[in-house]
């Protein structure tokens, strides 16, 4: 189902379309500013960590209270995982956020998703959040390894993995390398999976990624990626801004997922593409996904959505996702 533009989208834009611009801003040029010799991601000072924690807690207040908080030890660090109890009907969902946005990015999605499934959210390792990296992540294989270890620590035999933006790349990277735990994989406007990032997005992201430049530069870029939505005075946007100013990431540039690996994908795949996304060419992404993904996959184009599709269409995404999960179990 491909939704049309609705008044509901406009009502949501003020609060949630703040997230993925900052995600993209640090995606290509992470670590340009304030680079030091530390081999792992870290907060730049104790005061910086405290400031981020305050903004993180404010943003988390928009989510339901987690039923369980897990800190999973992996070979690359400790991964923060939150569990939210739904109806426990079928394998749970595991949600991966966009870059620098952590678990609070799912505030508008959890109410509808929890009507269908138990849900886990993960703070990506090596990113601003409550996960703590203590070993270098140097390759795409390393990215798959820490996530695979995290999922294996969960009690369920199988999970449905969903990733947003760079989280979509992270999900696809795992699904094409170590899919044993996955009942399905859902990619929400993923970057570096079905198309490369446009030059304009790369150029615009560079000044927005330098922490000592004015916040207005980052806000302008964020608004551009979110279809012109205002981004000021929103808790999750403030958290992202705090992360960009206080955390030094040490992650490799993600390589585009090879088409041959996508052709051999084992878990059933559902893909949401935002028709107004500036992080890739939507038409190219849709055509590539439909051409390379195995039979049984589903590709949904939301024509009026920006890259912040999860906040614009949470109910529609939940409905399409629930129908897909029911069909593959």
TrEMBL record:
PROSITE patterns: TAT. One of its GO terms (molecular function) is hydrolase activity. It comes from the Bacteria. Residues 93-319 form the AB hydrolase-1 domain. Gene3D superfamilies: alpha/beta hydrolase (3.40.50.1820). Keywords: Hydrolase. This is Alpha/beta fold hydrolase. It comes from Nocardiopsis mangrovi. The lineage of its organism: Bacteria, Bacillati, Actinomycetota, Actinomycetes, Streptosporangiales.
């Amino acid at each position: 189902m491909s939704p049309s533009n609705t008044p509901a989208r406009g009502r949501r834009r003020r609060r949630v379309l703040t997230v993925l611009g900052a995600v993209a801003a640090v995606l290509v040029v992470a670590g340009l500013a304030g680079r030091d010799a530390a081999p792992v991601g870290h907060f730049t000072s104790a005061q910086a960590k405290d400031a981020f924690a305050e903004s993180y807690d404010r943003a988390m207040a928009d989510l339901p209270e987690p039923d369980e908080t897990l800190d999973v030890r992996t070979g690359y660090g400790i991964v923060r995982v939150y569990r939210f109890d739904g109806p426990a009907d079928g394998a749970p969902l595991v949600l991966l956020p966009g870059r620098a946005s952590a678990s609070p990015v799912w505030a508008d999605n959890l109410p509808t998703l929890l009507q269908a499934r138990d849900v886990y959210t993960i703070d990506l390792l090596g990113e601003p959040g409550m996960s703590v990296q203590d070993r270098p992540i140097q390759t795409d294989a390393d990215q798959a390894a820490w996530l695979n270890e995290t999922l294996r620590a969960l009690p369920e035999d199988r999970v449905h993995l969903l990733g947003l933006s760079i989280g979509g790349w992270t999900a696809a990277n795992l699904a094409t390398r170590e899919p044993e735990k996955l009942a399905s994989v859902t990619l929400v406007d993923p970057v570096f999976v079905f198309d490369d990032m446009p030059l304009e997005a790369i150029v615009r992201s560079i000044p927005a990624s330098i922490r000592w430049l004015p916040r207005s530069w980052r806000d302008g870029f964020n608004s551009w990626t979110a279809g012109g939505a205002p981004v000021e005075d929103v808790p999750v946007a403030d958290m992202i801004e705090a992360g960009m100013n206080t955390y030094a990431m040490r992650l490799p540039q993600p390589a585009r997922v090879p088409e041959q690996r996508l052709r051999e994908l084992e878990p059933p795949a559902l893909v949401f593409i935002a028709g107004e996304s500036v992080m890739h060419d939507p038409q190219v992404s849709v055509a590539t996904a439909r051409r390379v993904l195995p039979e049984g996959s589903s590709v949904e184009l939301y024509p009026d959505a920006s890259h912040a599709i999860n906040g614009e269409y949470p109910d529609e995404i939940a409905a399409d996702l629930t129908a897909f999960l029911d069909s593959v179990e």
